[in-house]
Write a structure and sequence with these properties.
Largest sheet: 6 strands, mixed
Structural class: alpha/beta
Number of helices: 28
Shape: globular
Number of strands: 12
Length: 740
């Protein structure tokens, strides 16, 4: 491995102007002069663009401008000790030590780990002091290479230099490599400490767009701040040199989460139900103690923010080994959910607009909508429209709303396929995914064709992207070569091989569903209802919802079954949050203060068909809440199918009453399911918790002992009872259950 830094890349006590851009250009010129970059201007522009996104100045008079660009041919560190210092945006003033990190676009992980290790070393005060005291460039090179482990300590270290490499950023930090989670929790299960005796626990995720410097500095700063405060902090760095996820058991034991990120957090569902704060990555460097305090404040607040996502508890691939690889099943689930999550906004917006079109223009608006929007305007209102329209204005506005919604819904299969491919191959997969999705629609392959086509496009794009292309071709690969070849292969196969059989399967499935009546329809409703409640917005819920939405456009007066399925799914999805709201109102004493507050909000969330409103309850007590929700939602699903209730809107709950036929029967189904789920969850909490009459007496007697954590919490992994897991941690009934 070539040296990252040489004496020629070090400039000491130089006057390089008063602007950060001037300093960056000077350092870029030094890198290019040493033959490590093909263009000083291209490197400078890349670093300046990064600087404009987030200033790279950090506390202590340090700045770390950095860039990954094709202009760099060899990973390099250029260092300048400035006189006078220059402002790089740090809170505590200008920087006199500037390290420019220049990485090639395709830098290997070994180099990236060294670059990130340097960034971590710059939070160590002794190391920084040694840099300021260095007498010549060679001494700087020796210090840096020693800190990076590129020199034997006996060869290069003096007593003054030994401290930076031997002093950890946090006494509790565990560093097996640049991508290892930082910090270790102080779990002592044999002692069963109470919540008041054990240290508070925080997990953190840090990430920046480049993934070289700020990612690792923020992680170390948070761990050090936690050590200073007496709080256990474990940090996961999602950087360019790789990521090792925090062990799921550590996440489960944490009181709160800090996301110091400038990009999306990978696999955020692992933290479902946890209190959190989310800030730019630089805030993790500038004010780590403040972030930790803020996260714990969210944990202590009854209405503190919680991460609403699919349960981490049902991630079957989660392993206690931090370095475990993603299983095939987990990978497929992740990419399918990626496609569904991007599809849902089209569904919600398009479906509600179509429902509004029906309200304004009448239920026969589909017969007139296209002619009205193309042939009329607000100044030329239509004269031909259905009898149920709210006059000419209503007919015109209804036609506009319906057409916008209909066009939005027409993207569903293409969006689903495109973002499934994106989940596999990243951005190069989007174009081939959208294309094969459009082909699936043309071939009549529908929802199933979109899924299969998206998987095919994604894997083809990923396979092509794995080739080691020559350097001159790399720039064309993601924007031309991969989309071109992946589109040709996946869409060609859909046209010539897959489209026909999938279309026949889809047609047969539609015919089978349309023929379902009586008992068969009720059983289908029971199954769909249970699926909507089993994981509250997770993969099973999304499968049932996507199934209903995919068939919505095929519904008609002659074939109302797709509309009945939509009504069934929506009604069942409303039950869990409404049931938890009802339960907290009927027996508030057996719920924590946080749950009672969440119960108030759950009334509105449930009424609007937002199943995730029940997640805070299920996250703290899954063994009681989820079975109760499944029972009530299943009954609701069966009732709506038995009553042949239909909905032409895919979202909105009671607020789209105008798009729901037999609305009173729809409401009756929801009310019955809500009462059943609330009764079951109360029975489980009262009787299963302490056993029969004893539990009932405690729930009814105001003078009874305060509820323990075991009363209202459960194992979020679904293994073992809440009483076994938490019996040693009594808290008051006002405690935040999701923190225990």
């Amino acid at each position: 491995m070539t040296s990252l830094i040489t004496t020629e890349l070090v400039t000491l006590d130089a006057d390089q102007g008063t602007e950060s851009s001037t300093v960056i250009r000077a350092l870029a010129a030094v890198v290019a002069e040493q033959g490590r970059a093909t263009s000083a201007e291209d490197l400078a522009q890349a670093a300046i663009a990064r600087e404009e996104k987030t200033p790279t100045g950090v506390p202590g008079g340090i700045a770390i401008p950095h860039a990954r660009t094709e202009a760099v041919t060899e990973p390099s560190l250029a260092m300048a000790r400035l006189n006078p210092p220059v402002d790089f945006g740090a809170k505590d003033g200008p920087a006199d030590l500037v390290f420019m990190i220049a990485a090639p676009d395709g830098a290997g992980k070994d180099h990236l780990k060294l670059l990130s290790k340097l960034a971590r070393s710059l939070v160590k005060k002794d190391f920084v002091a040694s840099l300021r005291a260095a007498g010549d460039p060679q001494e700087v090179v020796d210090l840096v290479e020693t800190a990076l482990g590129l020199r034997e300590s006996a060869e290069a270290q003096t007593p003054a230099e030994a401290a930076p490499t031997e002093t950890s950023a946090a006494p509790s930090a565990a560093r097996a490599g640049a991508d290892t989670p930082t910090g270790t929790p102080t779990d002592t299960p044999d002692e069963d400490p109470t919540a008041s005796e054990r240290p508070r626990r925080v997990v953190a995720v840090t990430a920046c767009p480049t993934g070289i410097a700020h990612t690792y500095m923020a992680a170390d700063a948070l761990v050090q701040a936690g050590s200073d405060l007496g709080i256990d902090v474990v940090a996961e760095t999602q950087g360019s040199s790789g990521t090792t996820p925090i062990d799921q058991s550590v996440i489960e034991a944490a009181d709160a989460v800090v996301f110091a990120v400038d990009v999306d957090v990978r696999d955020k569902a692992r933290f479902a139900g946890k209190p959190y704060v989310q800030v730019p990555v630089k805030a993790g460097i500038d004010d780590p103690q403040g972030l930790i305090h803020s996260a714990l404040a969210e944990a202590d607040a009854p209405n503190g923010r919680r991460i609403a996502a699919a349960h981490a508890a049902d991630e079957e691939d989660t392993s206690s080994s931090a370095g475990s690889r993603e299983s095939v099943g987990a990978h497929l689930k992740r990419v399918l959910l990626t496609g569904v999550s991007y599809m849902i906004p089209f569904v919600a917006a398009g479906g509600l607009l179509m429902a509004l079109g029906f309200l304004l223009g009448g239920f026969d608006i589909p017969d007139y909508a296209e002619d009205i929007v193309l042939g009329n305007s607000l100044w030329n209102l239509p004269t031909e429209y259905g009898d149920l329209a709210l006059g000419p204005v209503g007919a015109y506005l209804g036609a506009v709303a319906f057409q916008i919604g209909n066009l939005s819904m027409s993207f569903l299969v293409a969006v689903l396929a495109g973002y499934i491919a994106y989940g596999i191959a990243d951005r190069p997969g989007i174009a081939p995914g959208f294309t094969v999705g459009a082909v699936a629609v043309l071939m009549g392959a529908g929802f199933i064709g979109g899924i299969i086509g998206g998987l095919l496009a994604g894997y083809v794009a990923h396979w092509i992207g794995s080739f080691a292309a020559p350097r001159w071709l790399r720039g064309l690969m993601p924007v031309v070569i991969i989309p071109l070849v992946a589109s040709l292969v996946s869409s060609g196969l859909m046209f010539m091989v897959l489209g026909g059989p999938i279309s026949a399967l889809t047609t047969g499935l539609d015919a089978w569903l349309s023929s379902m009546t009586g008992t068969a329809a009720v059983i289908l409703g029971l199954i769909l209802g249970a699926m909507m409640a089993v994981d509250l917005g997770g993969p099973v819920n999304k499968v049932a919802y996507s199934f209903a939405v995919a068939g919505l456009a095929a519904g008609s007066v002659e074939n109302p079954v797709p509309w009945e399925i939509m009504a069934t799914v929506m009604a069942a999805g409303m039950v869990p949050p409404l049931a938890m709201a009802l339960a907290t109102a009927l027996r508030p004493r057996i719920f924590s203060q946080a749950e009672k507050e969440n119960g108030k909000a759950a009334w509105l969330l449930g009424a609007a068909f937002i199943s995730e409103g029940a997640i805070p309850f299920a996250a703290s007590d899954p063994l009681r809440v989820i079975p109760a929700s499944v029972v009530g939602a299943g009954v609701t699903g069966g009732m709506t199918m038995a009553f042949s209730v239909t909905s032409q809107a895919p979202h909105g709950g009671v607020f789209v009453f105008f798009a729901i036929d037999s609305f009173l029967l729809f409401l009756l189904s929801v009310v019955v399911g809500t009462i059943i789920s609330a009764a079951v969850v109360l029975a489980l909490k009262i009787f299963v918790r302490k056993g029969g009459a004893a539990g009932l007496a405690e729930a009814a007697d105001p003078s009874a002992v305060p509820t323990t954590a075991a009363a209202s919490t459960g194992s979020t992994t679904g293994s073992g009872s809440a009483d076994e897991a938490k019996a040693a941690e009594p808290v008051s009934s006002t405690a935040d259950a999701s923190r225990v």
